[in-house]
Amino acid sequence: MSDVNQLLQTTKELIAFRTTEDRPEALRACADYIELFFESSGLTVERFENEGIPSVIVTKGTKTPTVFLSGHFDVVPGSDDQFEPQVKGDKLYGRGALDMKSGDAVMMHLMRDLAETEHSIGLMLTGDEEIGGFNGVAKLVEKGYGAEVVIIPDGGEAVHKVVSKEKGILRATLVASGTNAHGSTPWNGENAISKLAQAITVVEQLFTPVDQHPDNHWVTTVNVGTIQGGEATNQVPDQASATLDIRFTEADDPNVLIKKIASVLPAGVQVNATVVASMLNIPLEHKMITPFVDALAAHGRTAEWTLDSGASDGRFFADKGVPVIISQPDGANLHAPGEWVSIPALELYYHVIKDYLDRISR
């Protein structure tokens, strides 16, 4: 069985790959590394690529094992130094340390360590979770890969914090139209950026202000992600747009939200919206989930069910009726400067999952 030093080393090597959306060569190089990791393991290793997104699947010869370990090796952008992993005390710092190359490393070692056992497991690692997962897990599920339960180390920020719900995702674009004119004679035009600014203000008023959120932030939220408009400072712009990232709870129907947004927009502004992901609800009493709670207890941790404002690839399995177990090694600051993972928690997470696999294999 692997020890903490091996888990740490693999995590560091994975972090060193700058696997952001705009670096397809790094994504492929990381997939190469994963394939090489399983060389001579006796396991079946397959490589797929959809729209330039690589995925690596490792199995014992079946597309439908009892358990799939699922993760992603793409990360959000970061500064150069974040791709140079650093150990400080009992923490490992780096982009993807928590989200989620530490989880990938744990699963890779487990898969290889259990290659010759009777455990019915598989591993899938994909390269596009951060941009939706549609060419990774979604395509693999379409190809018939599945399991009775899926473990995803991509939420909770602690080994014992198990995600019970994830918010759904609604992506919307506000498009404002105006009329060009010279910047010195704005009365001769209609400023699309001004219309867009008004639209953003009234849309934000439909949602609970951040300073009024409950402690768990389990409310529907909106974030203005990007704004585009105008071609010259001395010209009244005739086009402007803004993208909105809306995360909704069970309290809101996304189709009703779209209608509400459309109803408050000023003249000359339209909304185009798409539901990217439905809410994820985990059946906590499912027979494939309760043994994970027991495994945590056996290693000194009491399960805490947590609500996650983010989303994961778990929704693609849940849509097929497959229960998903989402937790991860202890850490913090995912997607932010100072992202870290606890080194002792790498080993703990390894043993908790190993214990869980032993329990459901009896």
UniProtKB/TrEMBL annotation:
MF terms in GO: acetylornithine deacetylase activity; metal ion binding
Database matches in SUPFAM superfamilies: Bacterial exopeptidase dimerisation domain, Zn-dependent exopeptidases
Keyword Hydrolase: yes
A GO biological process held by the record: L-arginine biosynthetic process
Presence of the UniProt keyword Cell inner membrane in the record: no
InterPro entries the record matches: Bact_exopeptidase_dim_dom (IPR036264), Peptidase_M20 (IPR002933), Peptidase_M20_dimer (IPR011650), Peptidase_M20A (IPR050072)
Keywords (A to Z) from UniProt: Hydrolase, Metal-binding
Residue ranges constituting the Peptidase M20 dimerisation domain according to the UniProt record: 166-265
Name of the molecule in the record: Peptidase M20
